[in-house]
Structure formats: structure tokens, C-alpha cells
Amino acid sequence: MAKTSFGKTDEGAKVTMYTLKNAGGMEVDILTLGAALRAVRVPDREKKVRDVVLGYDTPSDYQNVRGYLGMVIGRNANRIKDAKVKIDGVAYELEANDNGNNLHSGKDGFHSVIWEEAEADDAHVVLTHISPDGAQGFPGRMQVTMVYTLTDAGEIILEYRATADKKTVANFTDHAYFNLDGHGSGSVEAQKLQIFASDHTPVADGEAIPTGELAPVAGTPMDFREMTPIGARINDAFDQLRYVGGYDHNYALDGANGSLRLAARAKSDVSGICMDVYTTCPGVQFYTGNYIGVQAGKGGVTYDDRQGFCLETQYFPNSVNDGHFRQPFLAPGEIYASTTKYCFSVE
Question: Among this protein's residues, is 312 annotated catalytic?
Fold first, then answer.
């Protein structure tokens, strides 16, 4: 494990970068800023190393450029309708940062803070954060631990743990954008994806708030139950795609019961790199980077729309306000625990 300086934030706070390496030639970079997954370098079928995660070269870019690239999201991932949540009869006002709704907990979310190192060795980085009572508008003082592990089998394991002294919301994810041909290689639309979900949560309009129903994917462009190119139907005249400019939808994973199970598979026929995604969460948000926009990425590369895809493991969007869905509330004395695993291989 290497530990190096990644510079300073706009406010002058120091940012550290950890680099984990495994026996198979993989390397993973992790930042204390936002607990961000900055880089994942993977040998392709020709043994050429490709960095398959979009990212930036400076802390200022992570603070000021849109997209939450690689950053940990909390206390609540995804959207909360009208930026309001009621907990045990008490209404809490949140930042309305997305069409009058709350997206990814607002500007003061976990992505914006410097996490503290608790432990670091050749295979693990353990980061912690204390979120004060009232942070982001949520009640309760929350203690959060984030563990990154890189195994010799090509697995990146993300483990989230949290406790709080008041009932609050706990729904964390990592917002990594993947491009299995390399982060500067252009569109991901030819790369293939399989999602193990028979239903998704349709949205009402361009605000991307679920209607509260589960809709079958069968017979629609939302169907990724078989391995399918990401761009095969992305431009179809279908309302769900039209509302958000492509895919930005939550999939209700089959057989969700809190155990670690296979949620999605992705692969590139060009590089031969494959990625399996496992999670304990009930849903995964598939996002095709529809609004990345032209921006400078790491290593002098320019990013644009649909040049990375996200598979954000999570509770369903707006589930804090929708009793149809499993709700991500954490009470005193309980432990929030979720695990996501990205497994890389080559065909």
C-alpha cells in the first residue's frame, strides 16, 4: 500500500491518496476527500493496464466539477421528493438542489467531507466520518465507517457501517463511473450489461422521482436480464428514457433479502474486461452518464455524456417517503451495514 499527498482542498484541507495493489496487477486509488474511488487499473486481455474509472487530478476538481465521480454518497443516496422527510411524525427540511428535490444529500453530503484514516495496510483502507446532529438537515449524530478491500482475486469490496443516536436516514452508495475500455476511451454504449432484475421503479417525469410502483422490464427498453449493449435501445421513443435522457433508473433486484448476491454484470468486447457487481442492497441505480457534459478529467482526458456508466447499489429513490418500498431508517442501537463488491476478470 502506498500513501501519498493528493494536494489540498479549496479551503486548505489536506487530502490523502491510498493506492492498493494485488498480485494480479490491479491497482486501486482511494481518496480521503469524499472517500472517493479515484482509479481502478486493470490488465486487459492483452495485459495492457487500463484505468476503468472516471476521475480528476485535483481536490478542487472533485469539489467543483459536477457528477460526484467515484465519491461516497450519504446520508441518503439518490432523490428525496420535495426535499422533505418525516421521521416519527417530525418533518425535516433538506437542501432542494435538484428540481426542488434533494439529490445525494445536497452540497454537504459525505462526498464533500475529508474522511479520517482509521486503518490502512496492503489490502485495506478504513475511513471514518462523524456526521453531526442536523448535518444535511437530518437528525442524529452519525458515526460512519467505510472499508475498502482489494483481493488477489480481483475483487474491490466496499463495506459501509453506521450508528446514530437518533432515528435518521442511512442509505449509502458509491458513485463510480465505469468505462471498461478505459476512462478516456469515449462512449460506453457498445459495452454490454446484464442486470438481475425483473422490475424497475418507473419515474413520473424528468424530475426522476419514482411513482411508487414496480413495473416489469419485459418487453421494454428497460430489460437487461440478458447481456445487452448499453446503447442498443437507449435512444428509443420510450417515455422513461426520454424523461432523463437515457438510463437513470432504479432496478429492483430479484431475490433481495439482505444477503450478498449478484446484481449486475458488465463487459467490453474491446478490452475483454468484465465486471460483476454484488450487493446486499435491494436496488441498483443504472445511470448512463447522460449529463456528464464536456469536462476535463484526469490525465488530460476530456469527458462527455455517456462516457461512463454507474451501478449505484442502494435503497430505492425516495423510499424514505414511500411506504411501498423498504425504508432506510436507522434507529439508536441499530447498525447500518451494507456491502458492495466489484469483481474484475478478463475474457
Answer: yes
